[in-house]
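[step 3/7] inverse_fold.run input=structure_tokens len=287
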């Protein structure tokens, strides 16, 4: 099912994000992370607070400033903070202090830090951050805007935040494609996956799911947006991410876990690190 509308205006005149904490780990791709973050917040209206977790001394401060001067931030060095302790705890603490509504971190698949970031840090940010979290899986020194955005929709209270952010980002970034999907489990409706006679019933369920998804999107002021919507039968925890891979999404948006039945928990309950390794694109977790 495809719905296309072309006269969308953002749901608010306020910036999509107000203040972003940017995690700055000293790695070979730090410049890429900083440039990606600069590009993203410049378009979304957020102020930057760069946070490095490490020993707070003159050498660390000098290295951080030099890193910023090599990045797109060189013309105006942003506020920066050096925090000690556990990386995830320090980022969460800094985000609370500066009242950030977004944390940006590089989830660097090609570096030794990969398991560290996607394991303990990403898990802690996803579970405990009071704000949205953007994980960049393949940051580039010459960033490109996200052109294919995929937002996973749930109907729980508060999940409309992901829908609104996705639509606003698509408009601001002038993305080519915006996809909204909602996954449902056929067995919840008494339909067995292996029962061939259930095919007609599943088609009916698709129709009902499409109608529910369309009504939800229109109730959230998207009747003038340009998007495509799909209902997905959830055959595994990878169903939604497989759709992202199939449409070559470069940004996957999902709302933070609301309860143990939420899509986030269904997708990432078993092994967050392993699942994120197979994520085909960057991840924005909204709150």
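[step 3/7] decode complete -> sequence:
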């Amino acid at each position: 099912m495809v719905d296309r509308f072309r006269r969308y205006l953002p749901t608010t005149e306020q910036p999509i994000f107000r203040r972003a904490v940017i995690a700055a780990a000293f790695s070979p791709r730090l410049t890429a992370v900083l440039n990606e973050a600069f590009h993203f917040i410049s378009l979304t209206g957020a102020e930057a607070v760069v946070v490095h977790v490490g020993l707070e001394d003159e050498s660390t401060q000098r290295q951080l400033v030099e890193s910023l001067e090599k990045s797109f931030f060189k013309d105006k060095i942003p506020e920066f903070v050096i925090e000690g302790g556990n990386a995830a705890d320090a980022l969460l603490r800094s985000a609370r202090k500066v009242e950030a509504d977004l944390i940006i971190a590089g989830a660097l698949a090609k570096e030794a830090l990969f398991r560290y970031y996607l394991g303990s840090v990403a898990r802690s940010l996803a579970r405990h951050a009071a704000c949205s979290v953007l994980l960049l899986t393949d940051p580039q020194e010459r960033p490109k805007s996200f052109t294919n955005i995929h937002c996973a929709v749930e109907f729980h209270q508060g999940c409309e935040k992901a829908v609104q952010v996705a639509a606003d980002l698509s408009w601001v970034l002038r993305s080519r494609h915006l996809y909204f999907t909602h996954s449902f489990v056929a067995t919840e409706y008494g339909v067995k996956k292996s029962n061939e006679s259930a095919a007609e019933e599943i088609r009916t369920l698709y129709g009902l799911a499409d109608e529910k998804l369309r009504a939800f999107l229109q109730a959230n002021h998207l009747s003038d947006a340009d998007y495509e919507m799909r209902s997905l039968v959830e055959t595994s925890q990878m169903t939604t991410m497989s759709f992202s891979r199939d449409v070559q999404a470069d940004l996957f948006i999902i709302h933070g876990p609301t309860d143990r039945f939420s899509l986030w928990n269904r997708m990432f309950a078993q092994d967050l690190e392993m699942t994120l390794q197979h994520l085909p694109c960057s991840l924005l977790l909204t709150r």
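[step 4/7] annotate
The radius of gyration is 20 Å.
The chain has a mean pLDDT of 84.
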